[in-house]
Amino acid sequence: MPKRPSLLSLVFCGGALLILVPAVLTATVYTALLQQGGEQLQFDALRIRGEMSSALLARRLYGVWMDVARSAELIDLTDLKRAREHIDFLSRLDRRYTWLGVADLEGTILAAKDGMLEGVSVAQRPWFRRGLVSPAAIDVHAAQLLATQLPASREPYRFIDLAAPLRRAGSVAGVIGAHLDWKWVAEGMDSLQVPGIDVLLLSGDRTVLFGPPDLLNKPLNIGSALAASRVTTGSLREHWPDGRDYFTVIVPTVGFANLPSFGWSLLVRQSADEALASTRNLIRSFWSSFGACAIATLALLFCAAQWLRTPLRRLSNTAEALLHDPSARPPYSETRFNEAARLSDALARIQSKLMGHSVRNSIQGPGGDN
Questions:
Q1: Quick one: which H or E segment has residue 158?
Q2: Nearest to 128 by CA among 173, 165, 168
Q3: Dihedrals φ, ψ of 102, to 5°?
Q4: What span, in angstroms and rounded, lies between the C-alpha atoms of 355 and 270?
Q5: How far apart are CA 212 and CA 345, in angstroms?
Q6: Predicted local distance difference test score (pLDDT) of residue 99
């Protein structure tokens, strides 16, 4: 006769499957949603930081740009003495300008900070050509003409250029130009950094203007940089050249009000491991608690199965004993649940009848009803 599973095994294993399988499935879905939500919250935090960083940088540049734009409205090239006084006053007031000057329509510098480059032609310089047409902003570049006029430095001089047309009687009379020290921009970017999060400044051709030393002044050819060059806002998890995965948010433009565009964009990145550390700790704590609850549930289930099995095992033992000896020990009076109590009473009655039948047989003897 094949061995059948015990009631204890059936109740324990069946109950465990009925309880734990739905619980594990629900917990798995919950933790997946929790991780997804944690990632989204992290992307949102990086996006907010990127937008704030872009706004702060743009506002700082806008303040400088407005000074240049206002000077374009105030300077009259027909009065070079006053123009030079205005330039000298603005240069002393704001040390961010490495050079500030005005040029006529032919590109000859007429007045400049500390007299630098006066009389020199800048007709071929991008800032001058673009400044003749409209307000202009030129991406960071190394010093060329101006390098010969500045003190020697260990690091090469780098500037961004701002320019605007000088108008008189409704027509363009010249151009005002300003070379803004790149160190000032870099210091502003450095103030936007926080531990564990990098804010990278990219040029229009995806060169890293500010960022980690291993990427600085190098073209960045990853998905986020390509998307930024196409003016696309987005967030993604991607593999970077240093071999690590990062959460990356793209801020495609750096601008404010009528500030001319430099073609810059921002990338804000955070190591995926660091970004998900708190979420993973939360998920780990959840599974630890879930495991402890599962063990406690199994222990209670085992006790419940044992509680159900005990009266049936006693009754089964009693029934087997009655087969051999009707006068054996009477069945235990079971009261744990109705079915066990009924079966206990039935066995008691069966034993009573068997014992009565046995007594009658012993009185009558083997001869019958004599």
A1: strand 158-168
A2: 165
A3: -130, 150
A4: 86
A5: 85
A6: 92
What sign results for the dihedral spanned by CA atoms 55, 61, 64, 67? negative
Closest CA to 231 of 269, 268, 266: 266
Structure tokens at 229: 């060059």
Q: Looking at beta carbons, which pairs linking 278-286 to residues 24 or more positions away fall under 8 Å?
A: 278/38, 279/34, 279/35, 279/38, 279/39, 279/42, 280/35, 282/34, 282/38, 283/31, 283/34, 283/35, 286/27, 286/30, 286/31, 286/34
pTM exceeds 0.90 for this model: no
Phi, psi at residue 50, to the nearest 5°? -65, -45
How far is Cα 39 from Cα 276, in angstroms, rounded to an integer? 7
DSSP state, 144?
Answer: S
Written as six digits, the tokens of 305 are: 């199965």
pLDDT at 358: 66
The mean pLDDT values, 10 residues at a time, for the chain of 370 residues are 75 90 94 93 94 94 89 89 89 85 95 92 93 91 81 84 91 94 92 93 93 93 88 89 95 90 93 92 94 94 89 83 76 81 83 73 58
Non-local CB neighbours of 94 within 8 Å, separated by 6+ positions: 64, 67
pLDDT number for residue 252:
92
| Helices and strands: H and E segment counts in the chain | 8, 10
Tokens of 244: 């690590």
Tokens representing 333 are: 């009076």
CA angle 236, 240, 244 (to 5 degrees): 95
Residue 100 in 3-state DSSP?
strand
What are the beta bridge partners of residue 112?
101
pLDDT of residue 370: 44
